[in-house]
Amino acid sequence: MEFQQLVSFVAVAEEHNFGRAAHRLHLAQSSVSLQVKRLEREVGVELLARAQHPVRLTPAGQVFLAEIKEALELVERAADAARSVAEGRSGTLRVGFNFAAGRLVLPSALTRLHAEHPGIRVELTQARSGPQLRALAAGELDVAFVFGSPTGGEVSSAPVQRVDLVAVVNRRHRWARRDHVGFRELSGQQCILFGREQCPAMYDEIHNIAAGTGTQLDVVEKIDDSLATAAAVRARPLVGFASAPRLSQGGVAGLATVPIVDPVPNLVLHAVWRSGEPSGLVRSLLGCLQVPSREPIAR
Asked: Which residues form the HTH lysR-type domain (predicted)?
């Protein structure tokens, strides 16, 4: 039983005439007649009383029409739903983000997305860049907001905003009241970092600047969990690193942030999706991003 057979039958049943049904469907009358005959053979009963003028439904045809119109309406709704998702107007969008994106990018973007596309449901997952990229590759996220531009053909990305990195110390540390520290002053300071797989871009930025400035980093501990890192820095005279937005607006109790200069370590926040043309849902979110023009992305 083919879709065109059903459409042809409904048109004849509603128009009571094969010619008018053919005109409505932009088909030849012979084609419409053939489609209806094939449908009747498949169903096994006569659906139309052709001898009557205008054409009438048989009792079996009346029952069949009522049932088939409901089915066609379901097909149309399914097609509308599919088009809506493909065009980015509805559906579920799984978004991963790091702290900087959650503070600087997503609040305005999601507000605009909800206003322009109320049919889109957003599922949010906060994680560092490395775990996000692994979730994206596994098909668990549709778009990720991470530091750095991932390499390789598996993903595509777009720069969103540049973010500075700062030093994090406890309130008793001698740097706690400093306006800033030079990057070279990190030599001789006990530092705490994380495994590179947690955030490759941040890890590489810190180590590359250290190598370029001849700064010998003394990394005495590596902790992947950010809350555990904060607890360790709060308890001991260690220097940690964080994106400036993480500890802005009042900071965290017992901790102080100190800007790093000469040079300023910084990262570009990227929106990342699986390679190829972004889906309609991802395009809708990308279209809602507000990239600050006052801060150029390119170095």
From this structure: 1-58
Residue 58 sits in a domain whose CATH number is 1.10.10.10
CA dist., res. 295 & res. 219, Å (int):
32
Note the pLDDT tens digit of each residue in 149-191.
988 778 999 999 999 999 999 999 999 999 999 999 999 899 9
Q: Which two tokens stand for residue 200?
A: 């490759």
**Among candidates 36, 62, 141, which has minimal Cα distance to 96?**
141
197 lies in the same domain as 224:
yes
User: Which tokens go with 293?
Assistant: 């023009």
pTM: 0.71
Query: Of 108, 252, 236, which Cα lies nearest the Cα of 166?
Result: 252
Same domain assignment for residues 171 and 261:
yes
Residues 107 and 248 in one domain: no
- Region 30-52: mean pLDDT is 88
Whether residues 172 and 261 share a domain: the answer is yes
239 DSSP 8-state letter: B
Burial class (CB in 10 A: 0-12, 13-18, 19+), 71: exposed
Helix (H, G, I), strand (E, B) or coil at 294: coil
Q: What pLDDT digit, counting tens, does each position of 116-152 carry?
A: 888 899 999 999 999 999 999 999 999 999 999 988 7
Q: How many CA atoms lie within 13 A of 40 on its CB side?
A: 19
* Residues 6+ positions from 260 with CB-CB distance below 8 Å: 164, 165, 166, 167, 180, 181, 182, 183, 186
110 is in which domain, residue-wise? 90-161+267-286
Give me the sign of the Cα torsion angle 21, 26, 32, 36: negative
Asked if residue 86 has pLDDT above 80, the reply is no
Q: Specify which residues 108 forms β-bridges with.
A: none
Residue 77, token pair as written in the block: 């709704």
